[in-house]
TrEMBL record:
Belongs to the glycosyl hydrolase 13 family. It comes from the Bacteria. GO terms for molecular function: hydrolase activity. InterPro entries: GH, GH13_cat_dom, O16G_dom_2. This is Glycoside hydrolase family 13 protein. Keywords: Hydrolase.
Amino acid sequence: MTDRTAAPDSPPDLSSRNPDWWRQAVVYQVYPRSFADADGDGLGDLRGVTRRLAHLAGLGADAVWLSPFYPSELADGGYDVADYRDVDPRLGTLDDFGAMVAEAHRLGLKVIVDVVPNHSSHRHRWFQEALRAGPGSAARARYVFRDGRGAHGELPPTDWQSVFGGSAWTRVPDGQWYLHLFAPEQPDFDWRHEEVRADFRTTLRFWSDRGVDGFRVDVAHALVKDLDEPLRDVGDIGVTGEDALPHLPPGSHPYWDRDEVHEIYRDWRKIFDAYSPPRTAVAEAWVPDERRALYARPDELGQAFNFEYLQAGWDADGLRRTIAASLATAHAAGASATWVLSNHDVIRHASRLVLPPGADGDAWLLSGGRAPAVDPAAGLRRARAATLLMLALPGSAYLYQGEELGLPEVADLPTEVLQDPIWEQTGQVRKGRDGCRVPLPWTTTGPSYGFGTGGAWLPQPAGFGAYSVQAQEGVAGSTLELYRTALRLRRKLLAGESLTWAEDTPDGVLAFARSEGWRCVTNLSGTDVALPPGEVLLSSAPLPDDARRLEPDTTVWLA
């Protein structure tokens, strides 16, 4: 890893005005390669991000979270990191990063960056050194290398499976195998090794010294594995991978969510708290509710993503149970809840929420979005209602780039342009995540709808300009203006971190009051319902003029 410890003068840290800013923040996720392209090469970059930060400030976001911008061959969209303390030259330089942080802080935006501690790129200098050093070497001890099974070591050491498909082990020419829970280009670190731990401490300080306000921790639940010999297979559990978590005693899976991982984050918290104000962190941990609370404890990362909410269907009873459980989990941890509807790994919610219950998203993508067909207007209406519901909840809301434009999933990308390793690793039966990563439209026309002066690294669909910022700016009722109004109101309305459920609602209606004296009502039923009394502050869809009715797939905020 490049060691550049002499940081430039840091800009004023605006979060010092409120060190708990993250508890109720609106955080906007930027996938840098798809956000804005300043040099016209078709790939988004840091200077492009800097030029468009005013859009985020005008939207009303509190922070920008950047997905990886580090040197990478893009075997997994940048999550295969070759150097944790530098910028991919295709995306810019460390000076460009500093300029972006300075501009973000000038606009009142905090900056959160991704840290990817479970695995590196196979191009990382440590892994290249390990390949050269051979079996039994100190260099290989930083990663997970093992001899194979079988008469000649020709079989993988265990039956562990990659999240992206196939075995989690790849054999190297000298006969040993290395572990990769994701792509073969992403070898897993051995976090028992003190050199690994020390190097990540340096990385956290490196970016904190450059003005970063917080970190999103990728695959936070996978760092520690049970590597005692003999290694355990998971086949006798009956299920494999993360699906096995509920079938084993908590904290005992061979490589997911082991209890020992929390020692690492307690160590990291000491680093975060050494800064004034303390740096924040949020865990990406695909674990059951009660286990997620452990990552969000104040002496660890402080917050964790709530994936139960993202995976919940469009059903009032189910959503209420999920929200109540999530709030209770966060409260038990001393954290605030988190809410998210879309990100760089899932089908955009303007499409996902109108798929039939139980629909196979992978099969839908494989059909090019035609089986079943999705009504874009119905999807957008439901997405707007879901967003207004989410923004009314106590805690932090995480927005994914382009959702403020109402972007649908680009499900019909031709297979020859796909970049996601899932496509090849699953034998071309899962199309992957490229459909939510298509570069953003900023203008109604142009070679890439304002993304850059040239084309875009993934093809944008015809008609994408109708979703653009230019097409929606200042247009009453547009999705962009709905988000702007909602975030402006949210800042005025939110104070406490609790809600009170309304118990006398019709079937299919979700309603709650906030301690600040306002209410949120969402109609998830298939019929009109009476609109409760009160002044309408904001509605996700136009309300009928002839009566106080709330139509299906509509959310209102009431004074």
